[in-house]
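Lab notebook: predicted structure, single chain.

Context: the supervisor wants predicted structures on file for every construct in the current expression panel, including those that have not yet been purified. This is the next one on the list. No modifications to the sequence; it matches the entry in the shared construct table.
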Amino acid sequence: MAAIVHILKLCVGVSEPDELAAWQKKRWNDAKKAGRKPECRHITRNTPKRAAEIVEGGSLYWVIKGVIRVRQRIIDVKPVVHEGEPRCKLVLDRKLVRVMPRPMRAFQGWRYLEATSAPPDLDQLGKGAANMPPKMVEELRELGLL
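Prediction complete. Output recorded below exactly as produced.
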C-alpha cells in the first residue's frame, strides 16, 4: 500500500468556502440541465506522477484568500483532452470538509502536500469547531487556543 499524498491548489476568485460550494453546485446543476453526467472535478495542466498515492485517500486542499480552509477527497485522477489540449482531471467528492485554517503563500499550479503535513479537519478538534464561523476559528488558532 502506497503512502497517502494530497494536492494543494489555490482557489482563485473565491473568498470563502461557501462561495466555492455554491460555484460547484451551480456547475453540477448546469451539467444536469444540459443532459451531461454531473461530476465534481478540477482540470489541471499537469498530471501528478504520484497519482496512485493520491487516489489511496488523498484530498485536494483549497487555499482561499491565502489560507488553506477546506479539502475535498480526490476520487480519481484521469487524463483528458480539454479544449484540444491534453490535461488532467481530478475527480472530487462533492463534500467540502473544513480544515484548521493555515496561512499559505501564493504559488502557481498545484503542489503535493504530504499527509503528515496536512491540516486536521475541524470536526476532529471537537464538536463545536466545525460549526464556528471561519473568522472565529482563525482568531482562536492565532491565539493558540485551537
